[in-house]
């Protein structure tokens, strides 16, 4: 631990640093050890001062928000854990529609609720997702046929090397499936603000088959109705935070849906038929993408590799509602959760020849 080192550098006035804070309660998995030093930054200035203080103290920095996509090691974090807690929403009318900006610390689901209530289309299918606004461009958050990359215009960021503030437009973020420049270079920038371009009075997106079926009796559902339906669908899969739900202590989808070439996808289909998992190749869930690539369903692969929903290994296991979510039932360790994830990864690869890649960010954890 680095308490002695940290103590050599007095914090600036009004910078409330705390030592030895447990990080587990600040994550949705409720796992992980303590941080040597902790700071909850409610202003951009405090965030910058915290980064500057840590640099002068020679400490590494973990910047995080809602902790919904974070797996922290049992030993914790030997440095400054800096939680972004800034707030604020603003909007302005443009020739193209509405520009809506939100501080990085705004709760994401509340923000989606706000814009859909205002009648601004573009984010309605992303309701119910835990976490904060600032995290959404990092992994290009997506669900039910929408991604933030479709409507994100630009982000205001803090350069961690120079502590200068700059704007990055959507093109500079180089978005990909559950990926972006911000994720590939996690120590370079801290997101301060995100700006979206939304459509006032626009029609909701009903591209996702499950969502379209749920609203089949409503030919022209409102944005609010679509949001409500998305939340209901996510709730059935235990993919919303709910203290009453035994599956709620998770990081959401633990693995991303694998994107493979056409030959690999065909091999998966043929293997599934050969071992009697499906009667015909077209019964394997898959979605064609640009360039001849194919997206497969990670949850389907996990279950067909022999891992059942609700199965437990001590204090960790699979969600009883969705095979893609790994759950901590209490009293467990990050080590046990990661061991289960590796077991699943290996099982899927052995059966189908496809390697699942994890979606969360790992801190002081080898995976």
Q: What's the SSE blueprint?
A:
Elements: H1 3-7, E1 18-22, E2 34-41, H2 44-57, E3 61-64, E4 70-72, E5 77-84, E6 89-93, E7 98-103, H3 108-117, E8 120-121, E9 142-143, E10 146-147, E11 152-159, E12 165-169, H4 170-173, H5 181-184, E13 189-200, H6 209-214, H7 223-236, E14 250-253, E15 259-260, H8 262-274, E16 286-288, E17 294-296, H9 298-304, E18 312-313, E19 316-318, E20 325-328, H10 334-352, E21 361-363
Parallel strand pairs: 2-5, 3-5, 4-21
Antiparallel strand pairs: 1-2, 6-7, 7-13, 8-13, 9-10, 11-12, 11-13, 14-20, 15-17, 16-17, 18-19, 19-20
Short descriptors:
globular, 367 residues, alpha+beta, 10 helices, four-stranded mixed beta sheet, six-stranded antiparallel beta sheet
């Amino acid at each position: 631990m680095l308490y002695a080192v940290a103590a050599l550098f007095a914090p600036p006035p009004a910078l409330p640093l705390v030592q030895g804070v447990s990080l587990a309660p600040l994550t949705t998995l409720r796992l992980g050890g303590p941080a040597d030093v902790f700071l909850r930054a409610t202003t951009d200035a405090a965030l910058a001062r915290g980064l500057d203080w840590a640099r002068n103290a020679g400490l590494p920095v973990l910047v995080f928000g809602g902790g919904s996509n974070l797996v922290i090691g049992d030993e914790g974090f030997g440095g400054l854990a800096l939680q972004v807690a800034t707030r604020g929403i603003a909007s302005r009318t443009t020739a193209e529609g509405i520009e809506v900006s939100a501080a990085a610390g705004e709760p994401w689901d509340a923000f989606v609720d706000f814009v859909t209530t205002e009648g601004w289309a573009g984010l309605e299918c992303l309701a119910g997702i835990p976490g904060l606004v600032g995290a959404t461009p990092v992994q290009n958050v997506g669900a039910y046929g929408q991604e933030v990359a479709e409507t994100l215009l630009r982000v205001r960021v803090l350069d961690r090397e120079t502590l200068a503030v700059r704007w990055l437009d959507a093109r500079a973020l180089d978005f990909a499936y559950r990926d972006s420049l911000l994720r590939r270079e996690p120590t370079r920038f801290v997101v301060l603000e995100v700006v979206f371009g939304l459509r006032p009075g626009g029609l909701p997106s009903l591209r996702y088959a499950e969502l379209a079926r749920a609203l089949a009796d409503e030919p022209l559902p409102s944005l609010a109705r679509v949001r409500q339906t998305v939340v209901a669908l996510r709730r059935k899969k235990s993919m919303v935070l709910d203290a009453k739900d035994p599956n709620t202590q998770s990081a959401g989808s633990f693995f991303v849906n694998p994107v493979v070439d056409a030959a690999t996808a065909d091999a998966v289909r043929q293997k599934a038929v050969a071992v009697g998992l499906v009667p015909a190749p077209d019964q394997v869930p898959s979605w064609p993408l640009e360039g001849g690539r194919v997206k497969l369903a990670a949850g389907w692969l996990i279950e067909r590799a022999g891992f059942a929903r609700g199965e437990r290994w001590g204090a960790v296991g699979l969600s009883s509602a969705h095979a893609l979510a790994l759950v901590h039932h209490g009293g467990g360790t990050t080590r046990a959760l990661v061991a289960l994830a590796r077991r699943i990864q290996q099982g899927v690869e052995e059966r189908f020849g496809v390697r699942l890649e994890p979606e969360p960010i790992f801190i002081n954890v080898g995976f």
